[in-house]
């Protein structure tokens, strides 16, 4: 199928109108154009292109119409037209308007366009002058009579018309358009047998055939459907000159000439085959402008030429590129929104976890208070009455609606998070595919766009979109970082909660120790001393100015409250409201003023690790977990020979209480008087002997904000003259630091308690009465709360009731924390023997067994 076919009756005008006239409007709009005549020798190529004086061919008709079009628009536009006329003969270029200039070279300019160096360019818009020039030039063309054609053209003739156009409205649009029109009369393909050429003619024929063969090869390569085949334009000057016309930015018309004679069947068939292949070449055509303007295509002109295939292809390529970038942007935006949603969910999750944890701690606090009240009641009643009337466990506290909602929301949020993860994976895959598609399109540009300006424009287009995508990515990362910071605030709050829990455990354990007058091993005492010193001094372990060391070189954790503050809050936590106020106040991210040392402390290795970690899952709350390690002093500070301790304590454990009483060191046993606790609460009670635990169950919890509460007891006690003022550790190896304990919720909330403070003996003898137990040695002793097991036996008569410790049971993934001591549990037989584990476990130094009471009464302490 061809666009149009003419028989012998077709006139020059018909051929011109059907093939070339349509190019003129594009030409003055900046579109390149090419018309070439192809076919066997003697079939009318020159006649079609040049014609005769009476029947001018395409050259003249085209130029006439071009000049008319220029004239019509000359009010608005300013044109300059130049013309050159050359021939390629035996692979040499001759200037037909100035044959004396010799052979000319082809050169490629900086824009990649082929130029004939030194060619004569005639500037005229006079059609008559043009015709005269052409006739004159054609006479210079190499023509020789052959057997096939008396006036056979032995060369390829190329008429080049350059149109430069500029708007006269300079202030409105400084736009210059430049277009070239090639009109080419090819030498005829010929068969030597037919032309019967010899000598020079044969040589000419060989050159002609060679260049036409090169042209044919280019046509074949360009017509390949995948467009990836290499096009070798360099095989001949003809193909080099026609490079843009064939495969570049040009609208090209090929007029194939064939003979009606059956004897020329073979040539006709070959010609039509070539023409058919050339028909499938898709050139990419767009208006050429210099300098570049933002307006890529004049809309009116685009509409006028939208039917042209090259233009459509160009638009298609650009559209594909823009579409690929747009889709990338959309996916990137969706990903950003998804990330944001994900972070919002995580933050919401943290909020709900905080709510639940707060409630767990509140429940624990209430239970503790209940037990403290029970203990007071039990001391004032007869044992029999107590046993019969009082329940064993605190009343169940129903969850608030807020907590129930938090649990429900957590489930929903987890489902949502799962959904988002799936969507994210799908979007990321789509994004990768689209990026690959855009990359392939960009790679196509150099092959499909021959014009340097076009390549530049499309390259810039690509760059702009790539930058937009990069910008979107950066926005996404910035947003993500913001969210990470927000989320970290919640993580920090979780740590705070965890610290509160640890502090609470410490306080309760100290209370327990005090209530039951237990001795603690020296190393534990040291740890506790350090802990209280920190509270008293208002400095953290790791504060740079802290003399205790261990913090040198560490960086302050700037975005969390101090441990002291947490402990103070615990001590002063008289109501739920305050805790809530703290919970809903985000800790500061920026460092506190240096002068406020109470609010600055250095991070432990764990907190530093968490600080730099991107894992946003709050830490699980475990006893002996990382939270405890934070409060742990440096190993050298708590150095203790466990083997030494173990042996000593072992002997003590195996001996009866009586034997303990007789020991050389201070005895561990306390009096069997069931009213002992009451005695110690009364003024003027017996002073404990050195080496004994201060029996007073009501030590004061110092208020760090109240300097009076931190006055050395050694000075205060004599003035009080009350019991429990004995100076312990007479036989100790070092000075005993002050210890202050909260023994009840009331005391916790008060800094002015009347009860005497406790001092724990630091004597070696006391230390030797303790031995750390392997928590695995007794199935009922679990330090990590799994399974919850009783730690204490039911209290025998005459012994103050033991505190039932129930740490918060966390119902969320942060892990359960439970150390339960249930007197009613059957785990420990009354007066049961203590099992000694085969191994000592230094990491769990809080687990000890000691004896207390008289006779066979032994109490397991934790
Ligand atoms: N349509 C036509 N009407 C009248 N004469 C024609 C027509 N086509 C060709 N001729 C005449 O046929 C002869 C050969 O034509 P022409 O020289 O144009 O062929 P060509 O294809 O250019 O040959 P070559 O390749 O050898 O140069 C010329 O004398 C030309 O005037």
Automatic annotation (TrEMBL):
Gene3D superfamilies: Kinesin motor domain
GO CC annotation, single: microtubule
Compositional bias ranges of the Pro residues kind: 787-799
Segments forming a coiled coil: 403-444
Entry's Gene Ontology BP terms: microtubule-based movement
Region of interest: Disordered: 370-399, 539-611, 641-862
Keywords: ATP-binding, Cell projection, Cilium, Coiled coil, Cytoplasm, Cytoskeleton, Microtubule, Motor protein, Nucleotide-binding
Biased composition (Polar residues): 849-862
Record's compositionally biased regions (Low complexity): 641-660
Pfam families membership: Kinesin
Predominant localisation class: other
Hydrolase found in the keyword field: no
GO molecular function, one term: microtubule binding
UniProt subcellular location: Cell projection, Cilium; Cytoplasm, Cytoskeleton
Binding site for ATP: 39-46
Residue spans of biased composition, Basic and acidic residues class: 374-389, 668-686, 702-718, 735-744
Keyword Amino-acid biosynthesis: no
Domain annotation Kinesin motor: ranges: 1-281
Family: Belongs to the TRAFAC class myosin-kinesin ATPase superfamily. Kinesin family.
Function noted in UniProt: Plus end-directed microtubule-dependent motor protein that regulates the length of motile cilia by mediating depolymerization of microtubules at ciliary tips.
Protein's recorded name: Kinesin-like protein
Organism the protein comes from: Megalops atlanticus (Tarpon)
Upper lineage: Eukaryota, Metazoa, Chordata, Craniata, Vertebrata
């Amino acid at each position: 199928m061809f666009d149009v076919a003419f028989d012998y009756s077709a006139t020059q005008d018909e051929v011109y109108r059907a093939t070339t006239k349509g190019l003129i409007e594009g030409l003055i709009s900046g579109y390149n154009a090419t018309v070439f005549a192809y076919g066997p020798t003697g079939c009318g190529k020159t006649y079609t292109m040049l014609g005769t004086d009476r029947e001018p061919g395409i050259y003249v008709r085209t130029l006439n119409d071009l000049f008319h079009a220029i004239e019509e628009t000359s009010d608005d536009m300013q044109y300059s037209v130049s013309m050159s006329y050359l021939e390629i003969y035996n692979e040499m270029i001759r200037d037909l308007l100035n044959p004396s200039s010799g052979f000319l070279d082809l050169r490629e300019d900086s824009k990649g366009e082929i130029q004939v160096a030194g060619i004569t360019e005639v500037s005229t818009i006079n059609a008559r002058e043009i015709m005269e020039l052409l006739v004159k030039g054609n006479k210079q063309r190499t023509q020789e009579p052959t057997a096939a054609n008396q006036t056979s053209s032995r060369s390829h003739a190329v008429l080049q018309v350059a149109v430069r156009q500029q708007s006269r409205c300079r202030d409105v649009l400084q736009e210059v358009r430049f277009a070239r029109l090639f009109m080419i009369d090819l030498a005829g393909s010929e068969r030597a047998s037919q032309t019967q050429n010899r000598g020079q003619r044969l040589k000419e024929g060989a050159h002609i055939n060679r260049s036409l063969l090169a042209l044919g090869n280019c046509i074949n390569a360009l017509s390949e459907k995948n467009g990836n085949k290499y096009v070798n334009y360099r095989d001949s000057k003809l193909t080099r000159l026609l490079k843009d016309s064939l495969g570049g930015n040009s609208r090209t018309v090929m007029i194939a000439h064939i003979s009606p004679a059956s004897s020329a069947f073979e040539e006709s068939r070959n010609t039509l085959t070539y023409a058919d292949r050339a028909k499938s070449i898709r050139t990419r055509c767009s208006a050429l402008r210099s300098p570049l303007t933002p307006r890529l295509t004049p809309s009116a002109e685009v509409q006028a030429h939208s039917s042209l295939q090259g233009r459509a292809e160009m638009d298609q390529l650009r559209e594909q590129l823009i579409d690929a970038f747009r889709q990338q942007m959309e996916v990137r935006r969706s990903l950003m929104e998804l990330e944001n949603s994900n972070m919002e969910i995580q933050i919401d999750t943290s909020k709900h976890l905080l709510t639940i944890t707060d409630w767990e701690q509140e429940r624990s606090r209430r239970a503790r208070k209940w037990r403290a009240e029970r203990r007071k009641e039990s001391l004032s009643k007869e044992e029999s009455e107590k046993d019969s009337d009082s329940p064993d466990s605190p009343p169940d506290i129903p969850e608030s609606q807020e907590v129930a909602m938090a649990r429900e929301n957590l489930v929903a949020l987890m489902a949502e998070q799962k959904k988002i993860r799936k969507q994210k994976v799908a979007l990321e895959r789509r994004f990768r595919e689209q990026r690959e598609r855009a990359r392939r399109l960009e790679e196509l540009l150099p092959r499909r766009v021959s014009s340097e300006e076009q390549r530049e424009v499309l390259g810039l287009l690509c760059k702009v979109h790539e930058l937009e995508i990069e910008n979107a990515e950066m926005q996404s990362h910035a947003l993500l970082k913001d969210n990470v910071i927000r989320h970290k605030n919640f993580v920090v709050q979780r740590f705070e909660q965890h610290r509160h829990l640890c502090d609470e455990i410490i306080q309760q354990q100290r209370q327990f120790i005090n209530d039951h007058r237990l001795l603690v091993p020296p190393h534990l005492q040291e740890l506790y001393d350090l802990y209280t010193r920190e509270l008293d001094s208002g400095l953290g372990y790791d504060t740079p100015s802290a003399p205790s060391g261990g913090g040198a070189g560490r960086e302050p954790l700037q975005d969390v409250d101090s441990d002291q503050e947490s402990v103070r809050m615990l001590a002063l936590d008289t109501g739920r409201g305050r805790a809530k106020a703290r919970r809903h106040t985000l800790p500061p991210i920026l460092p506190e003023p240096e002068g406020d040392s109470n609010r600055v402390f250095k991070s432990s290795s764990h907190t530093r690790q968490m600080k730099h970690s991107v894992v946003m899952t709050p830490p699980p709350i475990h006893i002996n977990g990382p939270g405890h390690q934070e409060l742990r002093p440096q190993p050298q500070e708590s150095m203790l020979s466990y083997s030494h301790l173990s042996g000593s304590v072992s002997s003590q454990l195996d001996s009866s209480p009586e034997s303990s009483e007789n020991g050389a060191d201070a005895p561990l046993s306390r009096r069997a008087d069931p009213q002992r606790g009451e005695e110690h609460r009364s003024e003027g009670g017996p002073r404990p002997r050195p080496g004994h635990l201060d029996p007073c169950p009501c030590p004061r919890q110092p208020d760090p904000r109240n300097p009076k509460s931190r006055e050395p007891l050694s000075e205060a006690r004599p003035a009080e003259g009350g019991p429990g003022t004995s100076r312990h550790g007479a036989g100790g190896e070092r000075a005993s630091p002050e210890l202050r304990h909260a023994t009840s919720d009331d005391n916790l909330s008060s800094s002015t308690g009347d009860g005497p403070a406790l001092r724990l003996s630091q004597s070696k003898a006391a230390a030797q009465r303790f031995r750390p137990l392997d928590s695995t040695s007794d199935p009922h002793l679990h330090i990590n709360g799994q399974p919850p097991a009783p730690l204490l036996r039911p209290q025998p008569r005459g012994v103050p009731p033991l505190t039932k410790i129930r740490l918060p049971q966390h119902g969320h993934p942060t892990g359960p924390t439970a150390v339960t001591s249930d007197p009613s549990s059957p785990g420990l037989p009354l007066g049961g023997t203590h099992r000694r584990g085969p191994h000592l476990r230094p990491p769990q130094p809080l687990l000890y067994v000691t004896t207390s009471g008289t006779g066979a009464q032994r109490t397991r302490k934790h």
